[in-house]
Amino acid sequence: MTNFALSLENVEKYFPPATSGWRALLHPISRLTIPALRGVSFDVKHGEILALVGANGAGKSTLLRILTTLLIPTRGCAQVCGFDVAREPAKVRLQIGYHTGADACFYSRLSAKENLLLFAGLNNLSQSEASTRIAELTEPFGLGALLDRQVRTLSTGNIHRLGLARAMLHRPSVLLLDEPTRSLDPLAAAEFRRFLVQRLVGGHGTTMIFASHTLAEVEQLAGRIAVLDNGRLLACDTLAGLKATAKAATLEESLEVVTRRAPRETQ
Predict the structure, then answer these.
(1) Among 95, 149, 191, 254, which is least packed, fewest CB within 10 Å?
(2) Whole-angstrom distance between the N-terminal and C-terminal Cα of the chain?
(3) Residue 188: inside a domain
(4) Is beta strand 174-178 parallel, antiparallel or unpaired with respect to 207-211?
(5) What is the SS3 assignment for 84-149?
């Protein structure tokens, strides 16, 4: 086992500017000019929970997609459980569970249970293992009344619950969540957070990185907080450390101070 569950070293990601019409025809390969991540470096220990915070467009989702191998970094190195995301993507995918609040990629005419069984099989779980795991996740996610219903009949919030359960079916070593409680009602969100702390991370030593705009959720779950702004990592510290550095009383005030101190560049 490597010393760190996740490791990023000087990770950068640039995207080409959007083009259309005759410009796209004459310039099919555009210069990479739009920075999404700029020199991001940090490590995450096994069993640690790290929160990614920052304004929209700060780079949180891009960073998570790099760790899932959905994007390749332009420069730098990112590793999951010692496997490089660019050179060993298949090995990385065996280690991770991933869910985004915007994810609704299910087979709509299959039932919720049939979908979970399908994805469990894709994660190399046997039929009996899959059934056991689905039973374990049914109560925490309130899936009991949903399992036999076609996914197309479920509400957005219930599909979100199903997606979270899918990400955890195979007991991943590393869990990557992008706004995990965005579509959940307050009671469901609170139950999900309790499940994460008590039964997933606390019980099995699962490492988790999650992006969230809900500061109360960040305070409750995260051991450390990584602050991103305009693609740069401004700080990566505990809640107490951020407050002490910013000389602030709350997380919100700390983020305002850290962001205000960030250098501004003309792009």
Answers:
(1) 149
(2) 41
(3) yes
(4) parallel
(5) ECCCCHHHHHHHEEEEECCCCCCCCCCEHHHHHHHHHHHCCCCHHHHHHHHHHHHCCCCCCCCCCC
Which pLDDT does position 266 carry in this prediction? 47
Q: Quick check: 173 and 23 in contact, CB under 8 A?
A: no
Task: Give per-residue pLDDT as tens, 156-170.
Answer: 888 888 988 899 899
* Rounded (to 5) percent helix, strand, coil in the chain: 40, 25, 35
Domain holding 26: CATH number?
3.40.50.300
Which residue is listed with tokens 């000389």? 247
**Is the C-alpha dihedral spanning 240, 241, 244, 249 positive or negative?**
negative
Average pLDDT over residues 178-193: 81
**pLDDT tier at 87, thresholds 50, 70, 90:** very high
CA 267 to chain CA centroid, Å, is 27
Bridge partners of 129? none
β-bridge mates for residue 98, sequence order? 176
For residue 63, the one-letter residue type is L
What strands, in cross-sheet order, belong to the sheet with 232-237? 96-100, 174-178, 207-211, 49-53, 224-229, 232-237
Chain-centre distance for alpha carbon 65: 8
Domain that holds residue 93: 4-102+173-261
Question: What is the tally of structural domains in the chain?
Answer: 1
Whether 139 is in a domain gets the answer no
| Tokens describing residue 133 | 């795991």
Rounded to two decimals, the pTM is 0.87
**C-alpha to C-alpha distance for 99 and 196, rounded to whole angstroms:** 14
Instruction: Look at residue 151 and tell me if it is in a domain.
Output: no
Confidence of residue 174 (pLDDT cuts 50, 70, 90): very high
